[in-house]
Amino acid sequence: MNSIEALAVLSSMLRKPPLSNIQEQVFHLTWQGLTYTEISANIGYEESYIRDVGAKLWQRLSQIIGEKVNKNNINTVVEHYIINRKEDISAPFPLSHSSTTMLNQTRTSARLEFPGSPLPLNSEFYINRPPVEELAYAEIGIPGSIIRIKAPSKMGKSSLLQRIIAQAKAQGFHIVNLDFQQADESVFVNLDKFLRWFCANVARQLQIPPNLDDYWDEDIGSKVSCTFYFQGYLLEQIDTPILLTLNEVNRLLEYDTIARDFLPLLRSWHEEAQLDEGFEQLRFVVVHSTEIYTSLNINQSPFNVGLPLVLSELTLEQVQELARRYELDGMDESQVADLMAMVGGHPYLIQLAFYHLRYTDLTLAQLLEEAPTLAGVYSHHLRRQFATLEKNPELVAVLQQVVMATDSVRLDAIAAYKLESMGLIKLQGNQATIRCKLYRLYLREQLSLESPTDPRIGQLEQENQQLKYLSRIDDLTKLANRRDFDDHLAQEWQRLAEEEVPLALILADIDFFKLFNDAFGHLTGDFCLEQIAQAIRECVKHSGALVARFGGEEFAIIMPHINGEQAVQLAEQIRERVKALNISHDPYRMCGYSSIITLSLGVASMIPHPDDDPLKLVQAADEALFESKRQGRDRVTIR
Q1: Residue 99 and which of 52, 182, 453, 511 are 20 to 30 A apart at CA?
Q2: Strand partners, 309
Q3: Are residues 458 and 568 in the same domain?
Q4: In the UniProt record, which is one GO cellular component term (predicted)?
Q5: Cα–Cα distance between 486 and 489 in angstroms, integer?
Q6: Do 187 and 214 reside in the same domain of the chain?
């Protein structure tokens, strides 16, 4: 029996008022074994409120059943009651239409999980996202391997982690699962206390007496003591591999001093395992939300080694398959597309919709109409997201720019990281767009209602944001300035070094611009620069590139995930677009060269390496640009 079947029977016996939406959710999640703390985190209400809802719900159910009901015995008491009364279920208390539908459907279908919790291993609602699962299963067979699962909240990280753990168990691995969200605040007081907590937890899960004091020596330091403890004690007693999973690593990153010592320690163990030096029995799975921005040197952290697994949204075909598994046979491709137009391919948002479409009388049209409102099925999720946002007021003004914009918006790296971690935005480099239409509609309404208590504070925040924006923008062309170019190049170099994917750079120079300026004057010269800046911006607007004014008449385009061939094609488009502007030059000064403004362009593309300087890319593009000029200008050269 599952929670839907149980609640369908119990609801039919309730006198008015019926159970509220929040009471039903507490019932379902409690039935699945979640604690009040976990339920609070799932549906976005304070834990104290959830406890109060639960207490009143158990009291009401106790009156119906005639036996005391609480969160610890709900499954046993309710199942026993229904089994004993099964002959009466169809007569004395007729079920409502929706309850009858739910009861009949759940009797003939697989066990339904209320969306929001990790999907059980036997769940038919888990959708594989090839090649993610296959890569993970192969990687855990490698001594000292590190798997990094990266995705925003509710994208399926925990469900994937469960399947990796099951695969490891099938191969006879010991499993140690640490969730940093479960650690007390006192654990993070200092590195020594944290590492002792870490070691003690690993030992207890391996069912080995901790005996920390036998290996801990303050004279050699906590990190060396921790290493000796693993090598000389724990691993000596284990003759099969250990899968060590570290969940919610983002919590650890809130404590910079600890993160700067602990994460490089993991990396050193990983590297020692490659040399067969005692750590070959360890395998790591590190789970975190999106990119990691800390003061760590990328060469010291584990976030540019091992196998990175990025959980993407579901495709149209995968959503259609999920609809089939929910037995939504009447839902055609166009209806699936309508739902995805509202929520994208976000697994949790899709499943929540299918859950309600399958087990209530709600139609897709009603669901979509109410989706961004507090009356819709996403109300708890949306309220939870907004409550988290309100705890970070510095992000409100930043997100407002994204919500109100019709195109992508360039954000500060830290703000972009935080908003992506919450799952509110998508990033291409530092260019941000809102994750889905649902968030745009809801947040546009909520943010328009937000007004600071003191209007002077709101004005000051806006002025600060404006000043920060202006400090990175070229006054004339409204492109990024040289300072912003340098910062962005360094950030992209570090990010793509981790992913081991190419980064391309185009440097473009206006041919004979000084002659043009001398002939027509600085005002005309400025207008020429503005036109060319706009032309370049139009060519790259969908590529996630950053366009900057590199020097007087030079422009630079930074393009992540672009190889040399693709960059040359884009550079040729830019060259042709500028020629099409047909900006006339002074024919008497051109001495046989083109009588319209042209560009010379240099292209370079390489896979960044953390040990290299990003100026290496700039130098290569500059050499290519020089070669274009040397060969007669108005051309593209690649190095």
Answers
A1: 52
A2: 149
A3: no
A4: plasma membrane
A5: 5
A6: yes
CATH number at residue 216: 3.40.50.300
Write out the residue range of the structural domain in which residue 51 sits: 1-108
Residue at 383: amino acid letter: R
- The domain boundary, picked from 428, 446, 469, lies at 469
> pLDDT by residue (tens digit) across 138-164?
999 999 999 999 888 889 999 999 999
Q: How is 270-318 classified by DSSP, letter by letter?
A: HHHHHTTSS-TTEEEEEEESS---SS--TTTSGGGSSEEEE-PPPPHHH
Q: Based on the number of CB atoms within 10 Å of its own CB, is 16 exposed (0-12), middle (13-18) or buried (19 or more)? A: exposed
**Residue 593, both tokens:** 């060269």
Question: What is the SS3 assignment for 205-269?
Answer: HCCCCCCHHHCCCCCCCHHHHHHHHHHHHHHHHCCCCEEEEEECHHHHCCCHHHHHHHHHHHHHH
Domain-embedded: residue 634 = yes
Nearest Cα residue to 197 out of 211, 209, 208, 183:
183
Judged against a pLDDT cut of 70, whether residue 454 lies above it is answered with no
CB 504 within 8 A of CB 638: no
Residues 147 and 287 in one domain: yes
Burial degree of 425 (CB within 10 A; 0-12, 13-18, 19+): buried
Question: CA-to-CA distance for 36 and 47, rounded, in angstroms?
Answer: 6
DSSP 58-109: HHHHHHHHTS---TTTHHHHHHHHHHHTGGGTTTTSPPPHHHHHHHHHHHHS
- Confidence (pLDDT) at 303: 60
Percent of the chain's residues with pLDDT above 70: 85
The CB-side HSE value for 34 (13 A sphere, CA atoms) comes to 26
Cα 19 to chain center, whole Å? 34
Whether 101 and 172 share a structural domain: no
Contacts of 624 (CB under 8 A, 6+ apart): 507, 601, 602, 603, 604, 637, 638, 639
Q: Which H or E run contains 606? A: strand 599-606
Q: Which of 258, 280, 310 is the last residue of a domain?
A: 310
pLDDT in tens, 317-375: 999 999 999 999 889 999 999 999 999 999 999 999 999 898 888 899 999 999 998 78
For residue 5, give every residue at least 6 positions away whose Cβ sits within 8 Å of its Cβ, in sequence order, or none: 102, 103, 106, 107
Is-contact 257 116, C-beta < 8 A? no
357: which DSSP letter?
H
Query: From residue 360, how far is each of 4, 71, 246, 367 by CA, in Å?
Result: 11, 25, 38, 11
Cα gap 350→381, rounded to integer Å: 13
CATH of the domain at 456: 1.10.10
604 beta partners: 505
**Domain total for the chain?**
4
Paired residues of 603 in beta bridges: 506, 638
CA 66 – CA 81 distance, rounded (Å): 9
Are the beta carbons of 593 and 511 closer than 8 angstroms?
yes
CATH number for the domain that contains residue 488: 3.30.70.270
Q: Residues 32, 35, 36, CA angle at the centre, nearest 5°? A: 120
Beta bridge partners of 506: 557, 603
Dist. CA 228–CA 222, nearest whole Å: 10
